[in-house]
Write a structure and sequence with these properties.
The protein has about 270 residues and is of the alpha/beta class. The chain has one domain: TIM Barrel. It contains 9 helices and 10 strands. An 8-stranded parallel barrel has the order 3-4-5-6-7-8-9-10, surrounded by 7 helices. It has a two-stranded antiparallel sheet with strand order 1-2. A hairpin with a 2-residue loop joins strand 1 and strand 2. About 50% of the residues are buried. The model has no long low-confidence stretch (mean pLDDT about 95). The structure holds phosphoenolpyruvate and manganese (II) ion (MN).
Length: about 270
């Protein structure tokens, strides 16, 4: 399989602007779960840049478990995200949920995200493969690592080798956190594939106070990056406020991750 480590010499490095996934430095992706307004995403973007984040995130199409919460600003949200990214000079990522939204996203963003709920949406995987754009492929919360590798293979088989795995927690019997972060996925993916892997500690725990320790564990385990939800006004967030960091917590996270990265580099 193209996704397997044996299929190429060395590891894949995915370059997006000045950012390298799978290179020698950790990538920090941050931003609100959803783009809510022009002002909200710009405030978030400024905070991400100020703390040393590398990529700005923001959802414009939100496929929630329930259909009733905020579902995103759609193309208007993509415009605001694009504008904010240009102002702070950071690459941007957004989630696509089908071929139609992929078409819109291609006009505005540098990286697309396939969410946990769409990991086995095979027609979307093929379309992203044909679009040849960098893609963050989240793990389905009930998917085995083998199924996840095969989802990446769908994208690669269409000629797109710019796939970044994202571990975001799996369903388990535990109820203290919404999902259980599978830290093992980091070394397992690294041994099975040449592609980079990042970890999302927001979606896995869904609890603000667990985000920083989980992010640190992921970096210590060798993750190439972190994706975290950060909202400038947590109490006003239209989606996922409880699993987002505020600005000062995000700054704290970045500082702590830099320290951990230094230590892990000494040992690796
Ligand atoms: C998200 O990143 O906002 C999201 C919906 O993630 P997941 O697909 O992992 O639930
Ligand atoms: Mn979210």
């Amino acid at each position: 399989m193209l996704v397997c480590r044996e299929s190429k010499n060395g590891r894949t490095i995915i370059k997006v602007g000045n950012v390298e996934f799978g290179g020698s430095t950790l990538v920090v992706i941050a931003g609100p779960c959803a783009v809510e307004s022009e002002e909200q995403i710009l405030t978030a973007a400024l905070a991400v840049r100020e703390a040393g984040g590398n990529v700005l995130r923001g959802g414009a199409y939100k496929p929630g478990t329930s259909p009733y919460p905020f579902q995103g600003l759609k193309e208007e949200g993509l415009k605001y995200l694009n504008e904010a990214g240009r102002i702070v000079e950071l690459p941007i990522v957004t989630e696509v949920i089908n071929e139609k939204t992929l078409g819109y996203a291609l006009k505005y963003v540098d990286i697309v995200q396939i969410g946990a709920r769409n990991m086995q949406n095979f027609s979307l995987l093929k379309a992203v493969g044909q679009a040849n754009i960098p893609v963050i492929l989240k793990r389905g919360y009930s998917a085995t690592i083998n199924e996840w590798l095969n989802a990446a293979e769908y994208i690669m088989a269409e000629g797109n080798d710019k796939v970044i795995f994202c571990e975001r927690g799996i369903s388990s019997f535990e109820t203290a956190t919404r999902y259980t972060l599978d830290i093992s996925a980091v070394p397992v993916i690294k041994s099975k594939s040449h592609l980079p892997i990042i970890v999302d500690p927001s979606c896995s725990s869904c609890v603000n106070k667990y985000i920083i320790p989980l992010a640190k564990a992921a970096v210590a385990a060798g993750a190439d990056g972190i994706m975290v939800e950060m909202h400038p006004k947590l109490q006003d967030a239209l989606s996922d406020g409880m699993q987002s960091l505020d600005r000062s917590q995000f700054l704290e996270l970045c500082n702590q991750l830099m320290a951990i990265e230094k230590v892990t580099k000494t040992f690796c």
